[in-house]
Amino acid sequence: MTSFAITLIAIGIADLTRGAGPMRGARLLVGPVVVLVLGVLTAAHGASIPLLIVGGLTCVAWQVLSSPGDSGTPHPAFAFTALAFGLAVLLLCWNAGPPVGGLLSHWAQHAAIPGLDRVGVDGAALILGLFLMQLGTGNVIVRLILRATGAIRPSGQPQPSDTLRGGRLLGPLERVFILGLALAGQVTAAGIVIAAKGLLRFPELTVRRDRTETQGVGIDAVTEYFLVGSFVSWLVALSCVAAAHLLV
């Protein structure tokens, strides 16, 4: 479990650094470095080391294959395959590694964090990883699906995102709300968050119907962009909710 949670945390942190400067090669090292640091803090040894290596390689493969671009980049299916394969290996080896130990476990024993004794350090690490996946990684997944379905146009052409602004910020906030409310047992409230997005965006789509036609992006393209992006974003959040309930 520790290796799986550490990998999720590393992927989430690495995806948050995607826009942090032009040094792409340095950003590829963020995931493996996070895996290494957390492995040391959890006193990983024995069977955990090969699993942490798999986690580090999964981070690098995800970063390389999901890099943005319109030409000369792999199909999004390769990125999802690499991510799914790496995480599946870690899940199949769920009980191969020991639980969290080392400095992190020692700190947790002395930290008076509400609820930590109930979920344990391993569970808390997994929830942290799932939370980080809602941020940059969720946006990357949405963008890859939009690119695969043609909802994102080639560079230089008018984009539906030029009409519906704020998605890169609203998407993570929405996913965090859904994950947090569902983990707190407020499933109905999480459903209200999903419904509220459609109700708030619908008047905007209606008002912009004629304007988007004159900007070179039809309302059908904007609607497709909104619906595909929204459903993929919700699927990311709900998948993490299911993982938390099944694994914690």
TrEMBL record:
Keywords: Membrane, Transmembrane, Transmembrane helix
Keyword flag Transmembrane helix: yes
Keyword Membrane: yes
Residues spanning the membrane: 35-65, 77-97, 124-146, 176-196, 225-247
Protein name: Uncharacterized protein
Phylogenetic classification of the source organism: Bacteria, Bacillati, Actinomycetota, Actinomycetes, Micrococcales
